[in-house]
Write a structure and sequence with these properties.
Shape: globular
Order of helices and strands: HHHHHHH
Number of strands: 0
Distance between the termini: 17 Å
Largest sheet: none
Number of helices: 7
Structural class: mainly alpha
């Protein structure tokens, strides 16, 4: 279907509706499940920093502290705003795919949502699982590069596996998906975590399930809004 100005407006409008709704769901889940775990981990981090600073009395006068939202309404507003922007961007990606291959119903929207979950969360998390504050990590640029390469390889691989029927291309798709994991994600030289292992496990499960719920809802809602919103004014 050609990308006319009316079609573009339709994609943006349907993406905004689906994205905001999915972002609100994600924000509520994070507020009651994920954020409390982060706050617990931050307590361990603050305690460790206080212990370290106790040996240098003037650290507090020389170390600049970057601004971050305070607990309460600032953290809530920041979380909802960032989630909404992220969700609308992801919804635009989905509706862009719908413009090329229109979904026939909500089940196909669910499939697209699960594909997005695999590309942007599940596959990268196999090598770089979500971590709590106070956990050692590799250099930021190397992690970002691996994450991006994994997401692109997974999207390419899923496209070959699911959107065409030639077995040679399907094998190529499977190879593309596993290649980043065969190479391995960048890891810190020494793995340390201030938070207890049980808390880290809870956080990873919470992140996995909340992101799964987000992508499931986003896929279905973006299909509904894309198919039901008129293409013409």
């Amino acid at each position: 279907m050609p990308l006319t100005p009316d079609m573009f407006k339709h994609m943006v409008f349907s993406s905004a509706l689906a994205g905001i709704a999915a972002a609100l769901l994600l924000s509520v889940l994070q507020m009651f499940w994920v954020t409390p775990l982060i706050l617990q981990a931050e307590m361990y981090e603050v305690a460790a920093e206080a212990d370290a600073h106790a040996h240098t009395a003037d650290d507090h006068t020389h170390n600049a502290v970057a601004w971050q939202p305070e607990d309460g309404w600032q953290r809530t507003v920041s979380t909802i705003s960032s989630n909404a922007l992220m969700a609308i961007a992801f919804a635009l990606m989905l509706t862009g795919a719908y413009a090329l291959r229109k979904p026939s119903g909500i089940l196909q929207g669910l499939a697209w949502g699960l594909a997005g979950y695999t590309v942007f969360f599940a596959a990268p998390s196999l090598g770089l699982p979500p971590d709590l504050p106070g956990t050692s990590t590799a250099a930021v640029l190397s992690r970002q590069g691996w994450w991006l390469a994994t997401a692109l390889a997974t999207a390419f691989g899923l496209g070959l596996l699911l959107l065409q029927g030639r077995w040679s291309l399907r094998l190529l798709g499977a190879l593309a998906m596993i290649t980043p994991h065969l190479l391995g994600a960048p890891q810190p030289e020494i793995v340390t975590s201030l938070a207890p292992e049980a808390l880290q496990t809870q956080f990873r499960w919470a992140s996995t399930l909340t992101n799964g719920a987000f992508w499931t809802v986003l896929g279905m809602l973006s299909t509904i809004t894309f198919n039901r919103t008129p293409n013409q004014p």
